[in-house]
Write a structure and sequence with these properties.
heterodimer; A: about 550 residues; alpha+beta; 7-stranded mixed β-sheet; 6-stranded mixed β-sheet; 17 helices; globular; B: about 260 residues; alpha/beta; 9-stranded mixed β-sheet; about 25% strand
C-alpha cells in the first residue's frame, strides 16, 4: 500500500451506504441547514460515504416491513409527497406449518404489523441515496473500507480503502490502484450485520468486553412476480414450524405487495446443532408447503439472495461510541430480535447519531466523552425499551422451541426478565454437534424447477459477480483442518450452510478429496464465518464492485 | 499535446434485457457504464500525456446521467469534461451525433489528437469516430492497436488489419479509433473519484453550442431503423457426425434442414 493519504478530505465519513448511514447523513445535513449559524459555518462541510458494492441497493436485503412513524421523522413530508411506492399491510397472518398443512392464526398483539408498509429495502436505500446526493452528500461506490486508521491513543482517524487490480497470487496488474488512506474528524460504521471493520474495531478496542457473543441468523429470500388467486396486495404471512422442526429457531415470511410482487424468505437461526442442516434446502422445502406454495404459483422468480441478521439482542450489543467513531444500525447490534426488525432501529440510531455529530461539530469535540451523548439518546428512547424487553428472547430458544415458548411466556409477563437474566450463550459456531453426536438421515432434495430450484440456478438470479483474477477473499486459517478433521467430524458442513455454493469438496485426479473454494459465487452473507465449527474462516471484502446485484430485494 | 477523447455511456452488457413486446433494449433500471473501448481511449490519452505532456478533454453526448461517465473519466485523471446534452440532440443517429461532437470540438478550439473507442457496444456501428473526422475534414486512422511514436507534428500508429497491421504516420490534427489491444485501462482510486465529484462539468446545448439544429436530433438523422429483433432461439441442436461412408446421407440431411428453416 502506497503512502497516499487523502487527509482532511472529509469532515464526516461513513462506512457502508445502507439505511443507517444514509438516514444519518441526510438528517445531519438537515440539522445543519435548519440552523442559520451552522449553515454558514458548515457550508462547505464534506460528508462522504464509502460503499463496497457497485450501485446502491446491490447488497441490501430484507423482508421488509417499514414503520411509517420513523420514516416521517426522517422525511416529514413523507405522507404528502409519497415518494416511494409502498404497500400498506392490510392482512396480518401467522401459520404454524407441518410438511403438508398449516394451522392459521391471527398474530398475537405484540407481533402485529398493523401500521406498517411493505417495501423493498433496496428501493428504499436507492431513494435515500438520491436524497443524500441532492443534499450534497458524496457517495463513493466500489470502495470497500479495508482497514481502520487509529492513533496510538486509540482515536479513530479514518479508514484505508482496498487495493484494486491484484491478481489471484497477489501481484499487481498493470491497472493496479493502491488502497488509499482517508481521514475524517469522525467515522461512522454502518456496515450492517457482522460488519468487517466493526469487528476489527471491536477487537482493537475490546468493545464487546463483558458482552455475550453476538448471535446471528441467515435469511434466504426470493422475490417473485405472480399472477394467481392467492395473491392479496398487502397480505403479510409469517410461518413457524416446518421445515425447522422443534429444535431450530427461525421462521418464514411471505409478503404480497406492489400489486404483483411476492417477497418470500426463510430465516434460520445459526445456533442450530444439526451438522447436516442445509440452509438452502430448508428454504426450498419450505416453499413446497401448500400454504406457502400457493403464493408463488404461476410466478416468475426474479431475484434470490441471502444475508445474515444480528439477533443477539441487548446483551450482545458492543460499546458503540468512542474517540472519533460511532457504530450505527445493525453494526451496533441494534435489531429487535423478537420482531426481527432492524430497519427502524437503523434509521433511529442514524437520527440520534446525526444529532450527536451535529453537536460535536459545533463544539469541535469528537472525544468519547462528548460522543457519549449518543448512548444517552438511545437509552431514553423506544429503541432501549424494545431491546430491553427482548433481551433474553432469542437465547430462551437455545434448547428448542418448547422451552423457548415457555421462556417467552415468562419474559412477556416479567417485562423481558423471564426465568434467567441474563441468559449466557455460546457463539453460534460452537453449537454444531459432530456427526457422531447427531447424524440424521436426510433425503436428498430434488427441485421441481418451477417453484423450487437448485442452488446454481438460483445463484444466477442474485446477479452476483466478482473479478475472477483477484486474491480469494475467504481466508482459511488452517486449510489442513478441512479434509483431515472437519470432513470426518462434521461432514464438511460448509457445503450446506453456505447459500451460494462457494465451498465444495471435490475429488482430484489422485482420487483425493480437497476443498474447492468458488469465491466468485459469494453473496457476502457472512454465514460461513459465523457457522464454521472450527472458527477458521475469515471473510474479507473482495475487490470493490463485486458481490450480488440485488434489484428489488 | 492537446487531446480530446469522445466517450459514450452505454448499458452494462451483464444486464442486457430485450423487451419481448417491442424487441428493443430495455434501458430502464439497467445500470450504465462507460463504453468499454472508450476506457481504452481514455487510457491512451493518459499514457500520451504521461510521456509527452499536454491536456486532455473528454466529451460525451447524452442525457444528464451521462455525467457519471464523465466523472469516471475525470477520476481516471483527465483534465476536463464536457457534456453535450439537450432535448434537441435526442434521437440522433451516428451522422447527427458526429456532427454535434465535431461542433463541440470547434468550441474547444485548438487540438492535436482526437481519440475514440473502436465502437459503442450498444449500436456497434463504429461510425461516430470516422464521422467526426469527416465533419472536421481531418485524417483518421481506425482500429489502432499500438502507438509507435509521437513528435511535434505527427503520430505513428499500428492499424490492425485482417492479415497483420499497417504502420501509418499521420499528421496532426487527426483522429484515431482504438482497440482493446491498446492497453489495460487503469482503475480509479478514491482520490480521483473525490476530485471528479467535486469538479465542475461544462454542459453544452443548442444555446451555447454553435450548431445547425436541422443537423441534430431526429430531424438531422438520415438513418431509419426499420426493425430491431433478437435472433430467434433454436430449440435443440442435433449433432451430426459425417464419415466417408455416410457423407452423402449427411449432406442430404443438412440440405433438407437448411431448406426447412428458411
Amino acid at each position: 500500500m502506497k503512502d497516499a493519504v487523502i487527509a482532511n478530505q472529509f469532515d464526516v465519513l461513513f462506512v457502508g451506504a445502507g439505511p443507517a448511514s444514509l438516514s444519518c447523513a441526510i438528517y445531519l445535513k438537515k440539522l445543519i441547514n435548519e440552523n442559520p449559524e451552522a449553515k454558514s459555518r458548515f457550508k462547505d462541510i464534506k460528508i462522504g460515504i464509502l460503499e463496497k458494492s457497485s450501485e446502491i441497493g446491490d447488497h441490501t436485503l430484507s423482508g421488509a416491513l417499514f414503520d411509517n412513524d420513523i420514516l416521517r421523522q426522517l422525511i416529514p413530508d413523507f405522507d404528502t409527497k409519497k415518494p416511494l411506492p409502498m404497500t400498506s399491510v392490510k392482512k396480518d397472518r401467522l401459520a404454524i406449518l407441518t410438511k403438508k398443512y398449516g394451522l392459521k392464526l391471527p398474530p398475537p398483539p405484540m407481533m402485529s404489523n398493523k401500521g406498517c408498509s411493505i417495501l423493498s429495502v433496496g428501493e428504499f436505500t436507492r431513494f435515500l441515496a438520491l436524497l443524500a446526493e441532492d443534499a450534497g452528500i458524496e457517495i463513493y461506490t466500489e470502495e470497500p473500507a479495508n482497514e481502520i486508521l487509529i492513533s496510538a491513543d486509540n482515536k479513530v482517524e479514518g479508514v484505508v480503502t482496498k487495493d484494486k487490480g491484484l491478481t489471484k497470487e497477489g501481484t499487481e496488474k498493470v491497472s493496479y490502484a493502491a488502497g488509499e488512506m482517508v481521514t475524517a474528524r469522525i467515522t461512522l460504521f454502518g456496515e450492517g450485520s457482522r460488519g468487517y471493520l466493526t469487528q476489527k474495531l471491536a477487537d482493537m478496542l475490546s468493545l464487546d468486553r463483558d458482552k455475550i457473543p453476538q448471535g446471528h441468523a441467515v435469511g434466504l429470500k426470493e422475490v417473485w412476480r405472480v399472477k394467481n388467486k392467492a395473491f392479496e396486495n398487502g397480505l403479510v404471512l409469517h410461518t413457524m414450524g416446518y421445515p425447522l422442526g422443534v429444535s431450530n429457531f427461525g421462521g418464514g415470511f411471505v409478503y404480497n405487495y406492489d400489486d404483483d410482487l411476492v417477497s418470500i424468505g426463510l430465516v434460520i437461526s445459526l445456533d442450530y446443532k444439526d451438522p447436516k442442516l442445509s440452509t438452502y434446502d430448508l428454504f426450498q422445502r419450505w416453499k413446497q408447503n401448500p400454504d406457502v406454495a400457493k403464493f408463488i404459483q404461476n410466478g416468475e422468480r426474479i431475484c434470490y439472495g441471502a444475508k445474515c441478521i444480528s439477533e443477539g439482542g441487548f446483551y450482545a450489543i458492543p460499546k458503540y461510541y468512542g474517540d472519533g467513531f460511532l457504530l450505527i444500525g445493525e453494526s451496533a447490534g441494534f435489531l429487535n430480535s423478537f420482531k426481527l426488525k432492524g430497519i427502524p432501529m437503523a434509521i433511529q440510531s442514524g437520527i440520534f447519531a446525526a444529532e450527536t455529530v451535529f453537536d460535536a461539530l459545533l463544539k469541535d469535540d469528537f472525544t468519547e466523552h462528548n460522543l457519549s451523548m449518543y448512548k444517552r439518546k438511545i437509552d431514553k428512547s423506544w429503541m432501549y425499551k424494545e431491546l430491553w424487553k427482548a433481551r433474553n428472547f432469542h437465547q430462551g430458544f437455545h434448547k428448542g422451541l418448547i422451552p423457548g415458548f415457555m421462556h417467552t411466556g415468562f419474559q412477556f409477563i416479567t417485562g423481558g426478565r423471564g426465568l434467567k437474566d441474563r441468559f449466557e450463550t455460546k457463539p453460534d459456531f460452537e453449537c454444531m454437534k459432530t456427526l457422531s453426536e447427531m447424524n440424521k438421515k436426510e433425503k436428498e432434495f430434488v427441485p421441481d424447477e418451477k417453484l423450487t430450484f437448485d442452488k446454481m440456478t438460483n445463484l444466477y438470479a442474485s446477479g452476483t459477480q466478482h473479478e475472477e483474477d483477484q486474491p480469494c477473499h475467504l481466508k482459511i486459517e488452517d486449510p489442513s483442518i478441512c479434509i483431515e478433521k472437519c470432513l470426518k467430524e462434521y461432514g464438511a458442513p460448509c457445503e450446506r450452510f453456505c447459500p451460494a455454493k462457494v465451498y465444495e469438496i471435490v475429488t482430484d485426479d489422485n482420487d483425493e478429496k480437497k476443498l474447492q473454494i468458488n469465491p466468485t459465487n459469494c453473496l457476502h452473507c457472512k454465514t460461513c464465518e459465523i457457522k464454521d465449527p472450527y472458527g477458521i474462516i475469515k471473510w474479507v471484502p473482495p475487490e470493490g464492485g463485486g458481490g450480488p446485484r440485488y434489484g428489488k430485494m | 499535446m492537446e487531446i480530446i477523447v469522445f466517450i459514450k455511456q452505454v448499458p452494462d452488457t451483464a444486464d442486457i434485457k430485450i423487451d419481448p413486446n417491442t424487441n428493443t433494449l430495455v434501458r430502464e433500471g439497467v445500470r450504465a457504464v462507460v463504453n468499454v473501448f472508450d476506457l481504452n481511449a481514455i487510457e491512451t490519452a493518459l499514457k500520451l500525456r504521461e510521456d509527452h505532456g499536454g491536456y486532455i478533454t473528454v466529451i460525451t453526448m447524452g442525457p444528464p446521467q451521462a455525467k457519471k461517465a464523465l466523472q469516471h473519466a475525470l477520476a481516471m485523471g483527465v483534465d476536463e469534461a464536457v457534456l453535450l446534452s439537450s432535448r434537441s440532440f435526442a434521437g440522433s443517429d451516428t451522422w447527427a451525433t458526429s456532427y454535434a461532437l465535431s461542433q463541440s470540438v470547434r468550441r474547444v478550439g485548438h487540438y492535436d489528437l482526437l481519440i475514440c473507442g473502436k465502437q459503442a457496444i450498444d449500436g456497434d456501428t463504429a461510425q461516430v469516430g470516422p464521422g467526426i473526422a469527416a465533419h472536421l475534414n481531418i485524417p483518421q486512422v481506425t482500429y489502432v492497436r499500438k502507438i509507435d511514436s509521437v513528435d511535434d507534428k505527427s503520430i505513428t500508429v499500428e492499424r490492425q488489419t485482417e492479415v497483420g497491421s499497417d504502420i501509418i504516420r499521420v499528421e496532426f490534427p487527426c483522429l484515431i479509433t482504438v482497440l482493446k489491444e491498446m492497453n489495460i485501462p487503469r482503475f480509479t482510486g478514491l482520490k480521483g473519484k473525490i476530485k471528479a465529484k467535486r469538479s465542475r462539468i461544462k454542459t453544452l446545448n443548442e444555446e451555447n453550442l454553435e450548431c445547425d439544429l436541422s443537423m441534430v436530433g431526429l430531424d438531422g438523422s438520415p438513418t431509419e431503423v426499420n426493425k430491431i429483433f433478437a435472433p430467434p432461439q433454436h430449440k435443440a441442436c442435433k449433432p451430426v457426425v459425417a464419415t466417408d461412408e455416410n457423407m452423402s446421407k449427411v449432406v442430404g440431411e443438412v440440405g433438407e434442414f437448411l431448406v426447412a428453416s428458411r
